[in-house]
Design brief:
104 residues; 12% strand; alpha+beta
Length: 104
């Protein structure tokens, strides 16, 4: 299952002590990563987003990781492409990069 479905009311994380569920609430609610990202960049609060979406902002100091010792739930990622296009070097390189980044 997709453990991110309940992320609006509970944040599930795993740390040294095991799994932790944190009840969250606030005056702003967003149901898209883009909306959450923009809110975080505007300083409107704390968000839970995948590292791939905020990595550059973390490196550049625009955002700060608050709980770096905790890991968020994994979320399935799918790459869809026409099978005969896999022979194109650009696509093959991207697929190899993405599977190396996010695992199989």
């Amino acid at each position: 299952g997709d453990e991110w479905r309940t992320a609006g009311t509970q944040w599930r994380m795993t740390g040294a002590e095991g799994e932790v569920l944190v009840e969250v609430s606030g005056s702003m609610v967003a149901n898209t990563s883009a909306g959450l990202y923009q809110a975080a960049r505007a300083g409107l609060g704390i968000v839970m987003l995948p590292d791939a979406l905020v990595q550059r902002d973390l490196q550049d100091g625009r955002l700060v990781a608050l709980l770096p010792d905790y890991h968020l739930p994994r979320r399935p990622t799918h790459l869809l492409y026409v099978q005969d296009r896999y022979r194109l070097p650009k696509l093959r390189s991207f697929v190899e990069y993405a599977t190396g980044l996010w695992g199989r």
